């Protein structure tokens, strides 16, 4: 596994949050959890109860007496803080920060991210230990960001940056997308029946009406099975209007269309 | 305020998660919370205890008997689900989904996002109500994503897409970045003293040594105050080596440099 950033929780107060942070880390393929003076000691039952099975991360968590000690083996430190500090630091959004961390890892470095106590956030001395600040932009009217949520946002950006999933895809598991020939076969069927029904009887309107109808079904990204269903629907509707007709014409094109 | 997506929690089980979801919504400037058959009834004390002050969102939450009723006034629905469903749907990553939602809002539409119960996620009937699926890519080895964390990820992407913060910036509150003239004034001072101390005595090495030293301080993005401090440090160090010399030369360049 490539090296992922260490997550350093400085004086975390609530075991619940440590557990939820570990769960978020597991979601994001992070595993190196470091705790600096957790308020309620360690191990912590509430952490386990809230980790939803991310026990390996809690079991592997390392305890430190100081932030300096917790980051001693790391090469690049990011401090998460919403407040400005009167220090000059690079301030990165989470997406830019994980890009920098990935560059660090590629160059053989070891990044780590500091998160402060729930009530106060990181103090100035801890921020001063960092090479850069990671700032999660939130609603200025409600800036109280939960500790585990902050870990999730950094972890989410980290995992996203490594995932090679396209931004958009069509997923089909039990059924295949229809070919254009199948789709056009349905158009032929539908338009033939609409012509027969007089729905497309005004010649000057016919082309635009057909375009509009086709667009509806084009957009639907239909499957093979759905095309059969649609054939069946048209056939049955026609059959209902002209008893004895629909069954004969539609039978070869998908029966009743129930998949 | 521009219209933001509605957050629809379908059969949420834990009040804690409803409260944390409301808090995440407040962080992300979302306010329209809709609950479909919350397991433990409504209102819920544990929701309030976990909302960290996002009470207005909980107070404004609307209760519905069915998912259909909850989304009746919306125009475009996104279902959050990790599992594939044997349906053809557009599957979007959160970033792409919020881009689509913003386009919807610009066009006068009203998007909504469905989140399923903690234990099972959305059922197929609810997913079928959606125009598209939002899929948060997580570690395949640990896919158990907390409900409020899922709300946060969608909300975070929504808020990011609207924020006009640059990816990276330098923030200084009480102090100004140094001008290049100030920086170069320090280089002159330092190099003069290094020359005097014989540190740069090998002529063929001098240029590269100076470059290396300058790079260190260039990278540091120094402030005015820090430049003064550095002048003071050099002056004092020289003064320690040659008692009676440093004070006279460094005095006009920043004194002892303590800001």
Counting DSSP E segments of at least 2 residues, the number of strands of chain A comes to 8
Q: How is the biggest beta sheet of chain A arranged?
A: 7 strands, parallel
- Structural class given helices, strands, pairing of chain A? alpha/beta
Number of helices of chain A: 11
Major sheet: arrangement of strands of chain A = 3-2-1-6-4-7-5
Helix-strand pattern of chain A, N to C? EHEHHEHEEHEHEHEHHHH
Oligomer: homodimer
Mean pLDDT of chain A: 84
User: Taking Cα atoms only, what radius of gyration of chain A do you get, to the nearest Å?
Assistant: 30 Å
How much helicity do the residues of chain A have? 40-55%
What is the end-to-end distance of chain A? 44 Å
Unreliably modeled segments of chain A: 245-259
Largest interface: A-B, 56 and 57 residues
**Proportion in β-strands of chain A:** 5-15%
Characterize the overall form of chain A: elongated
Descriptive terms for the model:
homodimer, 259 residues, disordered C terminus, alpha/beta
Characterization of the model:
Two copies of one chain form a homodimer. Chain A is α/β, with parallel strands linked by helices and 259 residues long. Chain A is elongated. Chain A has eleven helices and eight strands. Helices cover 44% and strands 13% of the residues of chain A. The C terminus of chain A is likely disordered. In chain A, strands 3-2-1-6-4-7-5 form a seven-stranded parallel beta sheet. The interface between A and B is large, with 56 and 57 residues. Strand 5 of chain A pairs antiparallel with strand 8 of chain B.
């Amino acid at each position: 596994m490539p090296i992922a950033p260490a997550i350093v929780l400085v004086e975390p107060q609530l075991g619940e949050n440590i557990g939820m942070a570990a769960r978020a880390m597991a979601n994001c393929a992070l595993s190196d959890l470091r705790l600096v003076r957790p308020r309620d000691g360690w191990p912590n039952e509430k952490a386990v109860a809230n980790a939803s099975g991310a026990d390996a991360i809690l079991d592997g968590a390392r305890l430190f007496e100081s932030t300096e000690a917790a980051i001693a083996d790391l090469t690049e430190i990011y401090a998460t803080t919403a407040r400005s500090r009167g220090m000059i630091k690079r301030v990165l959004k989470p997406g830019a920060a994980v890009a920098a961390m990935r560059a660090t890892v590629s160059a053989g470095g070891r990044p780590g991210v500091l998160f402060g106590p729930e009530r106060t956030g990181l103090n100035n001395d801890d921020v001063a230990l960092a090479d850069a600040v990671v700032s999660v932009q939130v609603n200025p009217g409600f800036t109280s960001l939960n500790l585990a949520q902050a870990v999730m946002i950094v972890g989410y950006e980290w995992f996203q940056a490594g995932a090679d999933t396209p931004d958009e895809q069509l997923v089909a598991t039990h059924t295949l997308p229809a070919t254009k020939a199948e789709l056009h076969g349905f158009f032929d069927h539908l338009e033939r029946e609409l012509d027969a029904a007089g729905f497309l009887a005004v010649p000057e309107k016919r082309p635009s009406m057909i375009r509009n109808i086709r667009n509806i079904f084009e957009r639907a990204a239909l499957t093979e099975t759905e095309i059969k269903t649609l054939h069946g629907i048209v056939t049955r509707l026609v059959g209902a209007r002209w008893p004895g007709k629909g069954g004969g014409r539609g039978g070869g094109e998908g029966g009743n269309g129930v998949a």
